[in-house]
Amino acid sequence: MRLLDAQAITDIALGSSILGAGRLLAQQSVGDRGPVRLVTAAEVHNEAAICFVAGMGAPGVLVEKLPRSNEIVAALRALERATGTQMTHICPVEAGGLNALIPFVAAAESGLPMLDADGMGRAFPRLDLVTPTLYGGTSCPMAMVDEHGNEVILRAASNAWAELIARAAVVASGCITMVACNVMSGTQAKRWLVHGVLTLAEQIGALVRAQQAGGGDAVAALVAHHRAVVLHRGTIRAVERRTEAGWTMGTARSRGADEFTGTDLELDFQNEHLVARLDDAIVATVPDLIMVLSADSAEPIPAELLHFGQRVVVLAMPCDPHWHSSAGLALAGPRAFGYDIDFRPVAGISAAGRPNERGLPDV
Prior knowledge:
This protein has two domains: about 200 residues, CV3147-like domain (CV3147-like fold); about 120 residues, Beta Barrel (CV3147-like), CATH 2.40.390.10. It has a seven-stranded antiparallel sheet. Strands 4-3-9-7-8 form a five-stranded mixed sheet. The chain has a three-stranded mixed sheet with strand order 1-2-5. A hairpin with a 1-residue loop joins strand 13 and strand 14. Helices cover about 30% and strands about 30% of the residues.
């Protein structure tokens, strides 16, 4: 077990954004309630009761409307009432962006420990795109609480239906709600989840922070230490963005610089970057990670904050091997987002073809 203080929250916030706001909310809860206990899977007993706590909605809305701690805790308590189960651990649904930090608020306010794991190993735009889905785990009952005090307990026929129905409720609530879902035992969590992701986010954040402080090259450090590759360097020339059906969606285009002079990169995003095309050739796709960083500071730039004139570096990293299984690609590959293309592993670094160590289900 480790205790995570305000500095750890800062590093996790930075690292999770790169794997993908909310930092001040999490730091305030930790400051008021004390450090959050972070435990590994080996420290969790098999009969534990674990759930995801997350925000659901369009990141673009968060620029103007941040969640509050009482909404986050209310979702947790609503799930406990709906299931008749008192949770023993909190877990992030995803290691990226705001949803890596919202669970810290629930953990700090409730006094429950955080599991060093998540259900994605990255960020995805839908709550059914989690590793428990690959094993038959269910999202429901799902508890939803919004800023108006509305509470929804959702029981759906499948995780895909839960996402569709919950997304409709999110739109009705102003495109952001707090959610608690996917109750699982310790035994299930040990097999189903992606482990060590919060520690990884903390390490990435600390690495970038140290490079910034010492005047080093944070991008080069990420490439060297975290199996990232540079897809493009350039300047953002155009962004088309819209909020649709509870997502921030659109396309960004970058004009190349340095070794990429004379090239153009196009990024499609749905909350997260899904497909990267270099001069019309596909160079990376979901479920591998595609990340945009500031060329000046190496700070991550989420899709909702991309704008004309930004100097950027676009990186890619391999996703967790869960998603390179046939079942994982069926659930979260390009076709799951409406692209009629095959998964394109990032050249030289992808885990595609790696032996299936967890015995993931085949499609």
